[in-house]
Amino acid sequence: MSNSTNSFKRIAVGLLSLLLFTSLAFLGTEANAIIGVIDNVVVTTDRPLQQDTDIAAFLNGIKLVEPEDDIVKFFEVYLTYFNPEYERPRPIETGKAKPGDYEFCIIIELNDGWDFLDSNKVTATLNGKRLDRWSTESGKRSGEGIQLLTALPRYKVTFNTDGGKPVPPVQWVLEGQKVKVPKQPTKPGYTFDGWWHDVPRMSLEYEFNLGLYQNLPLIAHWKALPTKKTTTTTTTTTTTTTTSLEPEPTTLPTEEPTTTTEILEPTTTEALIELTTTPDDTMPDTTSYSESNDWWIKSTDEKSGGGGFSLTTFLFTIGGVVVLAGFGILMYMIGRRKK
Q1: What is the pTM of this model?
Q2: What is the rounded CA–CA span in Å between residue 217 and residue 197?
Q3: Phi, psi of 5 (to 5 degrees)
Q4: CATH number for the domain including 185?
Q5: Which of 23, 48, 93, 336 is deepest in the core (most CB within 10 A)?
Q6: Does the structure show a pLDDT above 50 at 297?
């Protein structure tokens, strides 16, 4: 009896232990299943995929916005290019994008306790546009999305300001689209005359209302401003220096006195005049007259130092008076005789 009782107790303890472990395992499974489910996937890029886009830069610029990082265990993205030379699309990670179609693919794996809803209940977008395809199974922690991208042809537009400033940045314009009119540059001494084709140089002014279908180098066209005539007035200051010159006294050489003697004998009818001159009568006579000389003996110089008196003129005048007086006396005596 005691042996059967002990065996029963052992069996009961084992069953209870098994039940306990089973309950704990079940509770753990339920706990993992109810953490959360994902019904939204949001992916963005920092640049579009176009002709000549750098593939590595494009892939590095992709960001998973939803689900959040603490929910995601694994995230991967890659591009494949549909090349007619290959039977299957081949993943690419580097190089420049060529015009054509690319397949953009993302793979997401969630942490434990998180699942995606059914495929038709998950909204997956790339830059706001819904992915072409999203696939997952209910109760699965991973999902995959695919989007077809077309790298459109685009063309490079460069601007040469020919010395003007500022220099506009390079533009990449999709095929058939219009070039944006850049900020107008300025250049000292010139007026801007539009953007012209640089190949061939200055061949034709470019029209910005046209669609673009090739690479386009543009150059600024300038017109020289008219030159302004500048009149320069120069003021010249002339300094005149006046030097006062006072004549120094000049001492004439001393010559022997020379006199001119005029002898006048008064008569009633005529006067006799005898003149004696020196060889050089141009020099002034500086001889002083002595008191012993007769009053009618004077210098032959026509000018005396006493105010311009002429001795010769005086003598002629006296002689004339004497002659007239004598002539008058003579006529008077003749008249008396006749009476």
Answers
A1: 0.49
A2: 6
A3: -65, -40
A4: 2.60.40.4270
A5: 48
A6: no
